[in-house]
């Protein structure tokens, strides 16, 4: 028999269905605090405290966003995230990490989280990241997920990339960087914007990590596809 889920619901009086979140966090005081704060913001929030239960609940497909800790009993956050992505769930995942090297490990594992937030974090920053993820999901839901530019085709829904007739395999981070460029094809996207959306506000590593991923994309796709605009950022060329 599964343990009960703690449910937090916003005050009544709104006709629109509130966004529903799942918090998977074993620090119970933190989980309850976050749930109360997000409920006050108007969201419906469920809370579980271990990875296996988190995977089961998130896999039900009823959530608009999952806030997922890394260090969890039963199944760690990396594995929960990877299992959800492998099963085809595209729910936005905000992963919580601690300042003890986990962030660097997350970079290497690339399990498909949409954003990272390093503990301790400001609640105001958390809410900002949550709203940004919801906005992004809403924009994607209202637009075609397939972007075609010359012989490049990027399906942001299926997370697949084709160059001509050949499918190109990208890591989660490589795809995320390409996605930032393809949705604004022909426009200059700054390194800071890519860092903010692909990594997160709390990333304090080398900002040149963006150049590493752009170089990888050029090798896998075509050297002239992504142009460096000196002092400004990068632009995906729309012609062949």
From TrEMBL:
Pfam families linked to this entry: Response_reg, Trans_reg_C
Domain Response regulatory: 20-134
Keywords of the record: DNA-binding, Phosphoprotein
Positions of the DNA-binding region: 144-238
Taxonomy, superkingdom: Bacteria
Keyword DNA-binding: yes
Modified residues (4-aspartylphosphate): 69
Domain OmpR/PhoB-type: 144-238
Protein name: Response regulator transcription factor
The species this protein was found in: Streptomyces tendae
